[in-house]
Write a structure and sequence with these properties.
The chain has 253 residues and is mostly helical. The chain has twelve helices and three strands; from the N terminus they run H-H-H-H-H-H-H-H-E-H-H-E-E-H-H. Helices cover 74% and strands 4% of the residues. The radius of gyration is 22 Å and the shape is elongated.
Length: 253
Amino acid sequence: MTHLEALKQRTWLLHWSLFVFWNNSAKGLESMVELFFSEKYLQAITTNAPHLLRYLTAAVLLCKRRVAKSTSKDGRSGSEARKMLKDLVRLMHNCEYSDPIVEFVDCLCVKFDFEGAQRKLAECETVLQTDFFLCQRTPLFMEEARVFVFENYCRIHDKVDLSVLATKLAMDQEAAEHWIVDLIRNALLDAKIDSEMGCVVMGAESQSVYAQVLDRTRDLNLRSAALAQNLKNFVTDVKKEKVKKARAALEEE
């Protein structure tokens, strides 16, 4: 089997796997994320099926908190969940595809545009309800997306006023405080609640130079494979064009 045929077979497998993963309520989405993020299948997504980015993005948002909880129990402090989001953003930059679900994550994780994210979230609901695989997960997705907005809002602010958050959440301040405490725990944020000031105080989150280098170079293999595949396709197209011109010249003679 040639490399091109293997790539086509992996692409078909990714499409058929949606029927399996989205119908498995236990750990189907975690298994889907693991498969889609493996190097060979990432190449299939970027070159042959960028539209699958919609389902991968939805799966990451839906299982992110479960992964964070499981890794925190293992003593890894939610690193797997954060890595999953970073890998998703990298893939978004390598794919020429966009829809409200993908743009929602882009607004939050790349542009930090919270107003834009709210607009995209409203569009997401329409997209989810009309999608064959996602329609059953619409309420859960909307809840996880709102939590994701809150997590990112907390990460870029030093202080978050509890009364303002309580108003936005349609809760009284005490209930909002309990909800936020649980959310901070689940999101694994470095934060504390100042009851006297009535606000959530966020801690600074630093990353070592070594970790930054690893993050920036992790996708080099994927980019190299994508460039090689694109170059191969270009050379093939050029050869086909030359053959067509040669045949046309022979026919004219």
